[in-house]
Input
Amino acid sequence: MRRRHFLTATTGTTAAVVVPLVAQHSVGTSDVIRLRSGVDALVALDATRGGHDELERTALAGAAEALEKQKLGASQRIRRRLFSVAADYTSMADWSAIDAKRTNRAQSLLDRSLYLAGMAKDSVAELDAWNMYSILAHHRGAYAEAVDSGHAAQATAIARRDPFYASLAHARTALGHSNLGERQAALRSLGCAQEALGNASLDDPRPSWTAFYGPGELLALTAIVRDKIGEPAEAEAASHRALAGIPKEFRRNRALATARLALAQLHQRDIDQTCATASTVFTMMAGHPIPGRMRSLLGDYYRDLITLAPDASVAREWGDRYRTEWSRA
Output
């Protein structure tokens, strides 16, 4: 079964994630396992809360610890595994910066992730880095670069060997094509992603960061592609199916899928329904600040809303709620 580790601390804060400390001695497998458990805890926290500064700091501390232990590794195999752990911690810091919309910070961290993945000779970590390069390029508006990064992810050894990873890489490529207005290329890549995931074994053991991806998440990405290429009805249908399939523990991803559902409804001019849907995003994220990436998406939604329905009372009410929630975040 795929590993999914969750925090048990009642506070639910990043401070509850403790990077295990190990004694200064020759480092072995047990040390690698202890360090990797910290990565798993951060992955679980991100699924619920999203990226934030403290998560990034904790992840970078974990990477530094792994690299210090790498110098004491008992064998070349152990040292490579510690490079891999450091790559995974750095990738968590990368992702936290992307989710918090700190794009310049994320770029430098991604370069470091790719370097560490190469030192580890870890194809999964390499794919993870290219996957996030594609996401970052999307948020920077560099859509051709997002497509190129998707192709780089497809070319990794793990994507050639395991259709699960190939599916994720094709899905990222589809998003890039859709943002470029390349409808046929987007649908072709999306079809490849769907076919590959259908051929994948979802129960094979994989790193904890991959737990977010499955049929539900692919449907959420499908909804974005369909909306971008001008098919909001198909996007709405995909969003509903995504929300039925994304596990409850992935609260941040479910909130993002809900925001995308609201956008699809808005693009069909269903003003009352879209405002009701968009309001649930705030309820879903209650108790935590809204991550920067989600704040940006809601900002895009609000701009579309006031453009398409500037005089609707329900739109004005939603705008009041949006400004209130924004000031709290």
Summary: The chain is about 75% helix and 0% strand. Residues 101 and 292 are 5 Å apart (CA to CA). Residues 1-121 form one domain. The mean pLDDT is 88.
